[in-house]
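2024-03-11 09:14:02 DEBUG pipeline.ingest accepted 1 chain
2024-03-11 09:14:02 DEBUG pipeline.ingest length=80
2024-03-11 09:14:03 DEBUG pipeline.predict start
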Amino acid sequence: MSSNQVGRKPRSVRLDSRIWDAIAEEATNQGIAVNRWIEINLFDLLQEKGLIPRDAKRLAENRGGDTRSVASGERKSSKY
């Protein structure tokens, strides 16, 4: 799939409430939305595991509808 075809798909996920609360706290600490925190951290983890190509770029934040790729240095420090 080319970078022009990449997009976001709405999905519903069930999580242990302790996991959700911890993610929400960390996202708040970093000043980003929970969904963005999840997307950034899962993307990076899957990229490290080789499940997403190393040269793939994360999608940009979409608050204005922008889904262009961004450089990997955008993320603030976080732990998985």
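2024-03-11 09:14:41 DEBUG pipeline.report Residues 17-72 form one domain.
2024-03-11 09:14:41 DEBUG pipeline.predict end
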